[in-house]
Amino acid sequence: MDRSEVLTLIAVSYTQDAIGQQVPTETRREVFCNLSSVSASEWFEAGQAGLNPEYRAIMFVYDYNGEGIAELEGNRYGVYRTYLGRDDMIELYLERKAGV
Can you list the alpha helix ranges (DSSP code H) found in 1-100? Predict the structure, then answer.
């Protein structure tokens, strides 16, 4: 596994402004990963659950801090599932969805 793709992980935190509204603040960071499309069975099962899966990103578990948004080539994706694999690797399953 070469981990030559760059994936931007985005964490969202909220702060309160002067009038009490919650204002989102994004924290972005880049990580290296191996990117592939999801398997046919993953695509089918996720599709039955109303999801729109597109990619599977494999990276070191220490590079992932629970971010819910990922960006790849200017497109934003939601992280709908993770899988902790062997050898300190984690798989992120990404879906394209509106509002991310």
Answer: 40-48
Mean pLDDT of the chain: 91
Rg of the chain taking only CA atoms, in angstroms? 15
Say what the pTM is. Answer: 0.87
40 — phi, psi (to 5°)?
-65, -40
Q: How far apart are CA 84 and CA 71, in angstroms?
A: 21
Number of helices (H), then strands (E), in the chain:
1, 6
* Residues ≥6 apart with Cβ < 8 Å to 41: none
- Residue 94's DSSP bridge partners are 55, 79
Q: How far apart are CA 99 and CA 76, in angstroms?
A: 9
Q: How many other CB atoms sit within 10 Å of the CB of residue 91?
A: 19
Do 80 and 95 form a contact (C-beta atoms < 8 A)? yes
